Amino acid sequence: MHDELALSLWRRTDAWLTNAGVGTRATHAILILITLGLLGAVYGLVRSTGGTQGPYLHMAYVPILLAAVTGGVRAALVTALVATVLLGPLMPLNVAEGLPQATGAWLFRGLFFLLIGLFVAIAAGILRSRNRHNMELREDLAGTYSRNLRVFAGLVESRDEQTYGHCDRVGRNAVAIGRHLGLDNRALGQLYWAGLLHDLGKIGVPEAILRKPGPLTPAEFEEVKEHCRLGHTILMNVSDDFETISSGVLSHHERWDGGGYPRGLAREAIPIFGRIVAAADVFEALTSHRPYRDPLTNDEALAVLEQGRGTHFDPAVVGAFMTAYRAGRIGLESGPPDDSEAFVDAVLHPETIGRDLVEDRVPWRARVVN
């Protein structure tokens, strides 16, 4: 736990310095100035309070520890030596009386300064090495996660090119909805994959049923309904870290009033990804060409969503969808939504989704969605 906390602080510090445009050399210069400033402050404090007979000389450990953690062994030893000189031969035992310190006393104190700085610098170096190793392992795991999801998306595409185009638009439109619901970028990334893979389970549905031009029989429809569970099972068999994405895959045919499938969940019991993908899925399907029907107009499809508000769909999701649509952020079969292009490009970066999933393992980071 302590190692993970240190790793988080280290990474956030790096991110802050990067965002602030501070390079490595500039960072070192800043840390040197801070260390020198602290040494000067300690020297001034000790002298102003009467000399080394007071307790304030122990404040010298602050710049020594700072140098040890940020600069390593050399910086720690140099800082310890400077502190030894400032608080040794250059600092009286009693300033008012001009009484000097015993040589053995300040040499002994200096030895402690050096040992403390050395030990802390070595420990900090070991921790940094472990953190770098952990980060490399996490990046490798992130790449594995991303490749797995790409393989799944490829399976959907190879099975039915039309379905893949549909799923991609569902993912993009789900992102647009999620933005208006206030989801953060990490959640939006996972939401995109849930939308893209929501029909993953259809790889287990007979092709004759998927491409059937007419209405399905009750038995055929029961087979189609199993695609929710199958998609969820595929993802969860790969890794438990796909739980958030697979929850959207499993629940995208649930209804707000409890009349959906496969579990008959209702209202907030339906995972938020499932509620969002449900609305995006229905609208995209209604406005796209199918072998057995022509697409509805946008207004007709919007009317279907409005009619299903509070019965089929989460009212808040429908509201967010309408807001996104009016803002031009909902994509149609003719092209993707402009608003999500840059975001989705970032999501499709090889490590993006995997890194987010790996970081969700860290105890102090709450998982975004159930």
Fold and architecture overview:
The protein is built from 15 helices and no strands. The chain has 370 residues and is mostly helical. Helix 4 packs across helix 5 (161-180) and helix 4 packs across helix 15 (352-359). The chain has helices at 2-19, 24-48, 61-86, 103-159, 161-180, 185-196, 207-210, 218-225, 227-238, 243-251, 272-286, 298-307, 315-326, 341-347, 352-359. It folds into two domains: 2-130, no CATH class; 146-359, Hypothetical protein af1432, CATH 1.10.3210.10.
Structure summarized in a few sentences:
The chain is mainly α. The chain is built from 15 helices and no strands.
Pick out its properties:
Hypothetical protein af1432, disordered C terminus, 15 helices, mainly alpha, disordered N terminus, elongated, 370 residues
